[in-house]
Every structure is written in C-alpha cells, then in structure tokens.
Design a protein that fits this description.
Layout lengths: L1 E5 L9 H14 L7 E7 L1 H12 L7 E9 L6 E9 H11 L3 H16 L7 H17 L9
Parallel strand pairs: 1-2, 2-4
Antiparallel strand pairs: 3-4
Length: about 150
C-alpha cells in the first residue's frame, strides 16, 4: 500500500493516484513486491526545512527527503519501506526554472525519493550514475522526459 498525504493547500493541484502510480512504477521497475508499504507526503518549505534541520543538520528547505524504514508494520505485518517528503514550494520553483510542469517535477521527486528508500544513493560517481539511469528509465516509462536539477 502506498499512502499519500497532501497538505490541504496543494490538494487541488495534485492527484493522489498520479503520485501513487509514480511510486508504483519505481517499485515495479525494481521488481519490488506489491505488498510493501510506504508513504508520500507533500507539504511546504517550512515543514521540510524543519525536517531537514532536525534529521540532516541542514538549515534550509530542500526538494525531497527520504526516511527509509525497512521494518515490519506491527499492524499489517507488511514491510514498511519508509517515507518520502516533498516540498511543493521548492518543486514549483525548480519546475519554473527548468521550464516544465510542476507535476512532472513532483513525479521526478517521487521517483528520486523512492529510489533512496530502496537503497540508491548519489553520494559517489558510480552510485549517482546508476541512480540517474534508473530514475530516467522510470520517468520515461511514465512519459516524462526531464532531468534532475542536481
């Protein structure tokens, strides 16, 4: 199950099912079971700034944060992959700067965040190359042809 939580002021601009399908595409691409659970949260810069400071020591907002869990949910018994938190405000700024739709940027961030939940990392050249290739393949399967801003 992929749980979606969109801050109220962004609900009219985003479709939960699009976000769910985007995350599902990542899981399908990597042959991850449909039984796994995760959450995607879309909120504002203030919330992601606070999380970024608290968990990573970075005193600024960012576009996406991933919090891997890989623990069993005690209620369902399913593996909980973790949480992906996206800042709508930062995504909107990045989309405007890159000249594409905000929803495409949000989908890029969903893919990026999900890959982090699944162990991908871009802290070194080899990891970054592998992550970017996987990210591009998933996005293309969704009909999205954009590159990450990083």
């Amino acid at each position: 199950m992929i749980y979606i939580q969109i801050q109220e002021k962004y609900r009219e601009m985003l479709d939960e099912e699009t976000l769910r399908q985007t995350a599902r595409s990542v899981l399908d691409h990597l042959n991850i079971s449909n039984d796994e659970e995760m959450s995607i949260v879309v909120d504002d810069d203030e919330v992601i700034h606070a999380l970024n400071l608290e968990h990573l020591g970075s005193d600024k907002p960012t576009d996406v944060l991933s919090f891997p869990s890989r623990e069993k949910d005690p209620d369902s018994g399913q593996l909980y992959l973790g949480d992906v938190i996206i800042s709508y405000e930062t995504a909107e700024k990045q989309a405007t700067a890159m000249g594409h739709a905000v929803i495409e940027e949000i989908q890029l961030l969903v893919v990026h965040g999900c890959l982090h939940l699944l162990g991908h990392n871009h802290s070194d050249k080899g990891g970054k190359e592998k992550m970017w290739v996987t990210q591009e393949r998933v996005l293309k399967s969704l009909g999205i042809n954009i590159q990450p801003t990083e």
